[in-house]
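Action item from last week, closing it out:
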Amino acid sequence: MWEASSLRSSSRSRSRIDVQNHRPRKRFGQNFLADAHYVRRIVAAIDPKPGDNIVEIGPGLAALTGDLVSRAKRIAAVEIDRDLAARLRERFADGLDLHEADALEFDFATLGTDLRIVGNLPYNISSPLLFRFVQHADRVRDVHVMLQKEVVSRMAADPGTADYGRLTVMLQAAFRIERLFVVPAGAFRPAPKVESALARLVPLDKDKPSIADQALFARVVAAAFAQRRKTLRNALSSLSSAEDFARAGIDPALRGEALSVADFVRLANTLTTKDRAASPAP
């Protein structure tokens, strides 16, 4: 969830946003950003323009929402908390198209194309939501999301590092990822136990690798990292053979973390070609 409603006057460069009259609900992962300094930095990073097709996930108590509406003139938002949704409707009679729904189940395709997705993603559902963004990458202009700092490190990791894994490969096959800045735990109310970071995801568009079968690609990546100590030969034994690895030019003695995104795409496409060749003609 993003932050609360009104700014306190302060001579300090970091004023506080007044978080009042709402008890954060743990089941929704609510931690409200309460530092106006970071609100300004987030809005500056997004740089909303009039007419932008912005959708905010979890607007919460709406300080960021107000800035987005002011600059884009009209935005959409998805909010699961019915109490917060009622407040949003009362505050934004104009300028906000509110959808009271679970973002994990919401159909982003109903909002059109050239989407600019914004959100402070609850830690407990951040990975599933990121995978949903992959499904809608063809209708997205960019994504700006606040996440646990360690998650952002995994998103932007390089092959061969401890942070490199399934999330990395799936996201980097669709997006260019940039960590913008860290937001300390003390900037939130209640304060989480970890630091956060703002990430920017931009679709690869013409640079996106050609994946012949997205479902098979996802299965290959998931299996490769299901048990990180296993070699590819063992991890993918139910999906591929020695001949498949040879055709793809990949050493089966390697582990998943050693493969680049392009390597995973090549291997999955090799398996797709084999499956299609083995299938009888209709």
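Closing note: The first strand starts at residue 6 and ends at 7.
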